[in-house]
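Checklist before submission:
- one chain only
- standard amino acids only
- sequence pasted in full

Submission:
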Amino acid sequence: MYNTPDNQDLVSLSARVMAACRAIETQRPDGLFNDPLAAILAGDEIIAKVAPQAQQNEAQGKPIVVVRTRFFDDFLISKISQIRQIVILGAGMDTRAFRLPLHPSTHLYELDRLEVLHYKESILGDTASKCHRHSLAIDIKESWSDSLVAKGYKIEIPTVWLAEGFLYYLNETELHELLRIITKLSTSGSWFLADIMNSFLVSQSTENLSAHWKYGCDEPETLLSTYNWKASVVQVGDEGANFGRFTYKLPPRDIPNQPHYFFIKAILNTGSHK
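Returned file contents:
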C-alpha cells in the first residue's frame, strides 16, 4: 500500500494519494485514461512520494488504482445514454465530472467530508465540468440522505452509485446502514459500483492507510442480494479487470484464507426496500 507522509490528515491525504496515482498514469503514453487535473489536485510533493511505490506496483503487475479507475470509467461511459444521475461516495479528488464525456444534463453528486471538498474546490476554482456537478459536504457515517435530496437529487430516476476505494474503511454496522440508505434512495434500474476486499486481506493489512481498513466481504453477491441488488463480481486481474496491466494473479476466489479483491457492478431490478 502507499505510504503516507507524516503529520497530515488521513482523510484528505488518501484522496491526494489516489490523485497522484492518476497523475502518474496520465504521464504514460499508453495510459489507461487521461486525467489532466490529477496532478494539481495531488500536488508535486505527494506525487514525488507516491511515485516509487507506483513504480514498484507496476513492476509487480499490481497497478490497482489505475486499473480500478479504468474499470469504473468504462462502466460509466457505457451508461452515458441511459443515466442522468450519478452519486460518488467518498469522492475525494475524483474528476469524472470534468474528464468523462458525460451527457450535459447529467447531475453528478460528490459526497465527502468538508475538509476534503474545501481543499478540492480551492484548487479547482471555477474549472468548468462537463455536467451539472454538485459538492455535498457530509460524513457518510451520519445522516445525509435528506441533504442529498435537498441538493436536487431525484429518488424517482435511476442512479449510478459509485463507492470506489471506500467500503473497507467502514465497519460492518456502518456498511449495512450505507446499503440500507442507498437502497431506499434508489429506484429500479439503478446501479451500485464498488470495490471490496475479502476478510482475509483486510485482516492481514496493518500498515499506513491499510491499517484503517475495517470491513472485508467474501461473498459480495450475497451481501448485496440482502438489499435487492443483483451483483456481477469479478476479481481484479481476471478477464475484464486487468486491461493488460494487472498481470499479478490472485488465487481463485473459491480458495479460502487467501487474499481476494473484487470489483462489483450491481443492479437494482425490482424496486427498493423502504
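Reviewer check: The longest strand covers residues 261-268.
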